[in-house]
Amino acid sequence: MTRHTVKKGETLYIIAKKYGIDLSSLVSANPTIKNPGMIMPGQVINIPSTAAQRTIVIPRESYGYNEMQNDLNNLQEIYPFIQITSIGSTVMGRSIPAVKLGHGNKEVHYNGSFHANEWITTLLLMKFIEVYAKAYASGKKIGSFNIKSLFDSASLWVVPMVNPDGVQLVQGKIDTNTTVYTNAVQINRGSRDFSGWKANIRGVDLNDQFPAYWETEVSRRASSSPSPRDYPGTAPLSEPESRAMAQFTRSHNFRLVSAFHTQGEEIYWGYRGLEPSESRQIVNRFVEVSGYEAIQYVESDAGYKDWFIQEWRRPGFTIECGHGINPLPISQFWEIWGKVIGIFLMGIYV
């Protein structure tokens, strides 16, 4: 990031022209300047990189934790208004990043890759972070959505990858000389093909970990010990990743949450009659922009969305993207993107 010291007689417009960037990008790169018409000599301002013209998030096979972290670093360099923090660490000590875009009082939360072999949801969220930030920096709309207005009215918090260890395992990027890898192979019945693995590295399904009729979910699940999928663990929030998500959620005042999964092109929006009446109107808007099917109730408990609705009585959604067998092929990315970008934007707007 380049820094510029304001000289006598300079305005933001003059400085933008000097560096060959547009004025809206310069204003967006300096959110602490409350009045763009009043800058003082000696004041130091951020000059956004012209790299904003290039694409950072490239959909590709084996998009894992390191690729995500590199992209987040590059995006923050180009768009300094992006805030990145950590909500906690995984079993193997990987930091779980959370990304904030916007500065409005209304808080909205999206997450992806609760399940390891659903890592394409991380790519979808990362691409949205880039597209959303770029539109704000350039002062442009996305479709009919005024992005500056969304930034002003809402703060979007994204956890792109809840389960980094599991994603790395599925993609063959875990050190094979570790005890956790040896244990994972044993849990996987001796197979080193982890394409069917949903759980965290210890074989616990993170989306069966929340204290929302957890005991009922335990009795329903076939797995009674660590497994590639569907094992709820020994107790609610027994895993560091689920605890981090619970603590993160409790520390905010989210008006709405959406957990992105694959697959089925379905949106689950109710939980045991505890969802607010407005959830029906919101899911209908999601259906309009995506073509997905809205499903109010299923026989399932202990999920993140379930727990959120139970505890806060606010709108919560599980959105199943795409069609096929997990992990979905990267060839589906743009088809899925075309349907979920409307959900991303509508979730901030409503």
From TrEMBL:
One GO CC annotation: extracellular space
Does the record carry Metal-binding as a key word? yes
**Which key words tag this protein in UniProt?**
Carboxypeptidase, Hydrolase, Metal-binding, Metalloprotease, Protease, Zinc
Tell me which cofactor or cofactors this protein depends on: Zn(2+)
Q: Which InterPro entries match?
A: CARBOXYPEPT_ZN_1, ENP1_M14_CPD, LysM, LysM_dom_sf, Peptidase_M14
Q: Where is this region: Disordered?
A: 218-242
Cited Pfam families? LysM, Peptidase_M14
Ranges of residues in domain Peptidase M14: 61-348
Which GO biological-process labels does this protein carry?
A: proteolysis
Catalytic residues, per the record, are 320
UniProt xrefs under PROSITE patterns: CARBOXYPEPT_ZN_1, LYSM, PEPTIDASE_M14
One GO MF term on file is:
metallocarboxypeptidase activity
Q: Where is the LysM domain?
A: 2-47
Q: Which CDD domains match?
A: LysM (cd00118), M14_Endopeptidase_I (cd06229)
Question: Which family would the database say this protein is a member of?
Answer: Belongs to the peptidase M14 family.
| Record-given protein name | Putative carboxypeptidase
Please name the source species: Desulfosporosinus youngiae DSM 17734
